[in-house]
Each structure stands twice: as structure tokens, then as C-alpha cells.
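#structure-requests
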Amino acid sequence: MSTAAPSSRLTAREHHLPAAAFAALAVALLVGLPEVLGQTGRLAAVLVLQLGLVLCWVLVTGVQGFAGSLAVGAGAAVAADLALVLPEDPELGELLGVIGIGFLAVVVQQMLRRPRHELVASLSGAVLMMVAVASLASLLLLGRTDAGSERALVALLAVGAALVVGHLVDWALPRPQLADGVPRGLLGVLLAVGAGAGAAVLAAGTGDALDGERSLVHGVVIGGVAALTALVASYLVVEATPEDVPADGPADEQRLSPWVLPVVQVALPVAACAPLALALQAAL
């Protein structure tokens, strides 16, 4: 028995251009606020992205228990940030306690809601959301020193360049298509990795934290992860905007706005790249 490929009611323009614009905005926020306000600005930028991801993730994925899921996600975001801000010498391992307690909170929240339909899907979606907001918190460790700030700039520009170029290329020419119904192509992935590498090398040239070879490694690895995670996010967007849902259908079936989707399309790749950038900082 064959299964029809998913198809989204969004046009290629709606799928890619808002995401490219939001990627540029998010990176500008994550780079600009720390330049103006230091670590306080970095905390504010990360928290804004975390809370935006929580709200949009619940809307896009349809996690059941709307208010409870928002509360758990926001609580995980604040707890993860505090775990890395309050200690004098914080480590990434501090997030393990946040994730452990957050997992229990997700389970309790999902078990207490009534009715408990779509329990497994909602539980897995809420757990992934919590892990993503905790991963975003690792950006707070990346920029605690002068050298770390330069490396954070390299990583963020690599992520931003990969996302923007990937979406623009796939808007114009999503070929060869990687999956039926999903407007993403191999050319976009390859050029996104190249853009990430190029942005990292250019950004590293403005400081002394990284030489050309190490910055190239940073750009290729981070750009590759960003491109692949953006591909996963596009699968999510296509499944969340089915073509067969009429525009005047029930409110719960048309709960999405095209302006909600870009937050997930951008925040999810940044979350995947944040701990990776921290690992590269330690390894290189």
C-alpha cells in the first residue's frame, strides 16, 4: 500500500522568505544585544528566542494542553538560563538537572490534562521542545570570555548565513528535491554549508580567537548541522500546514499563521548548533 507524499498549502515564497528574514533578525539580535549590553544582553536575546520557540512550537506541533505546555516550556527556559548564569563557574552539565526535572514536569502535565488524547505525540513534542530551549541556553556559556565572544560571533554568523542562503536557494531552485512535497533541495544544502564556512572565515578574520583553518572547520560543521536541522524543520512545516485543510475550516485546524512558522524554522537549527559550537570551542 502506497502513502501519498505530504503537501503543504504554503507556497515556496511563504515557506522560505519569512524564515530567511527571521534568521537574519534572530542572528542580529543574538549578536547585537551582547555588543550593547554585554552578558545581560546575551541573556535577554537568548531568553527572547527561547520563549518565542516555546510559544510557536506549541502552536505549530499542536501539543495538547496548551497552557500547561507553555508553562512547562517557559519554566524550562528560565531554569536553564539561571543554571548557567547564577554559578560563578557554570558548566554545561548544569543543564542535566534542568532537563531531568523538566521531563518529570512534562509527564505530570500531560497525565493530568483531560481528555488525554494524543498523549504519546504530545509528550514527545513537549520533551523535544524542552531539550531545544535548554540547548539554546548553552549560548550563554559560549560568550563568557573575550575569546568566547569572538567564537560566538563566528558560530552565530555561520548559522545565520547557512539558514538565509539555504532558504533563498530553495525558494528559487529546490533541486534535486530531497523529499516529495518538501521544498528543499540538495543544492540548497550544499550552498548553505558553503555559506556557513565562508561567513565563519570572514568573521574569524576580524579577531584573534581562531585562525583560518579552525574557522573553516567551525563553519563547515556548524553550517552542515544548521542546514540539516533546517531540512527537518521544513518537514515539520509541511506536515503542520496540510494542503487539504480549507482556509475556512475549523479554528483548531487552521491555528497556524505563516508568521509563526519561521520561529520554529530558525530557533530549532540554532538550538542544534549551540552546544555544538561550545564543543568546538573546547576541541579547537
